[in-house]
Every structure is written in C-alpha cells, then in structure tokens.
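PROTEIN DESIGN WORKSHEET
SECTION A - STRUCTURE
LENGTH: 205
TOKENS:
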C-alpha cells in the first residue's frame, strides 16, 4: 500500500481524482468538504492539500466570511495540480508535516483529509500543536464508509461496519494524541452518501 500511495501522490498524481472518484463511488470531493463545519476561527492550514479541492472551497468561503487559508504538501506534482486549479495567489507550500514552515501559534484550525500514516507521526502531531493558537483545532477526516448495498452486505459479513471500526480505533487514536495535550473528540458523522470518521483535537488553553 505504501508503494501504491507513493505512486499515486507522485508520478501518477494526475490520476488522483479519477482513483478517488472510483473508490468513493463519486463522493470523494463531497466527503472532503465535510471537514468545513468543524473549522473554527479564520486562519486555516491544510496539511496534504492534494489537487486543491478543499482549498478551492475555502477560497470561496473567504469571499463571504473572511477566512484566510494556507496549505502544504510534500508532493511537487500535487503542488503543480493545485496551483493550476487555484492560481498563484493562494498560499501553497511544499514541505513535510514533521517540519511545518510557519511560526508558532499562527492558525486557528489545522485540517487534513484522508491522510496517510504520517498524520500520526509524533513529530507531525507536535508540529500541528505548535502552530495552533490556544484553543485551536486539529481536524482530521480519517476515513469514510460509502452507503452502498454491496458494501453494506460486506460490512455485515466481515463485522467491519462503521460502528465496529469506530469502537476499535477510538482508543488507539486517543492513546496516540493524548501525549500531545490535545482534548480529543472522535465522531462518526452520517451524510447521505455514507459515514465519515472525524478526529477533532483541541489544543488545551
């Protein structure tokens, strides 16, 4: 899987939207936008912006709500795709999450949608905590389960429904984030197309 994701994010980044649409039955971008209701404050940092769909939505929100967003990704091909979509005026940075290139206490919310395992790297968590303002939120859309008859049957047969998955990973998430002094909430949110698993970690004041 690591090899697959490395290819998808680098030499085959141009296929990302197609692959995402296939595995989500066309709902991927709608799921990504599901993170927006959890955003707090006006200064937003996205980790792993990919081809830039969430940034485009945040730009549209900025026009009416005053949001100011920046985004980073370690993939140069993804950076080019996002820049093509968003234009040169958007703040896009090429960097790794283990070394976020912003000063401490800059952002009200740090967000990430469908990240790979880097999101639980202790250095990533420490950096997200560092750049958040007091009371700020680290919001991760970790997983999604499409609402589909065939998948529903498979979930039942394998015992891997959203409810079972929620129970099995909640303690692991809490154990991982607790040392960083976050106040942690894990939620499964039902939407028309499926169920979304969110981590909302608030920097303690």
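SECTION B - SEQUENCE
RESIDUE ASSIGNMENT:
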């Amino acid at each position: 899987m690591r090899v697959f994701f490395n290819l998808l994010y680098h030499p085959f980044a141009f296929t990302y939207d197609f692959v995402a649409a296939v595995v989500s039955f066309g709902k991927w971008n709608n799921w990504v936008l599901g993170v927006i209701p959890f955003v707090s404050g006006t200064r937003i940092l996205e980790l792993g912006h990919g081809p830039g769909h969430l940034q485009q939505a945040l730009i549209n929100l900025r026009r009416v709500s005053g949001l100011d967003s920046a985004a980073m990704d370690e993939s140069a091909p993804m950076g080019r795709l996002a820049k093509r979509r968003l234009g040169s005026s958007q703040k896009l940075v090429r960097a790794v999450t283990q070394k976020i290139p912003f000063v401490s206490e800059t952002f009200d919310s740090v967000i990430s949608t469908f990240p790979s395992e880097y999101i639980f790297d202790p250095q990533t968590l420490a950096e997200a905590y560092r750049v958040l303002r007091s009371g700020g939120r680290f919001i991760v859309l970790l997983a999604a389960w499409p609402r589909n008859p065939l998948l529903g049957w498979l979930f039942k047969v394998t015992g891997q429904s959203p409810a079972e998955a929620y129970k099995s990973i909640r303690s692991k998430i809490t154990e991982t984030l607790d040392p960083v002094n976050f106040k942690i909430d894990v939620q499964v949110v039902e939407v028309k197309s499926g169920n979304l698993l969110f981590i909302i970690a608030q920097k303690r004041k």
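SECTION C - NOTES
The radius of gyration is 17 Å.
The longest strand covers residues 132-146.
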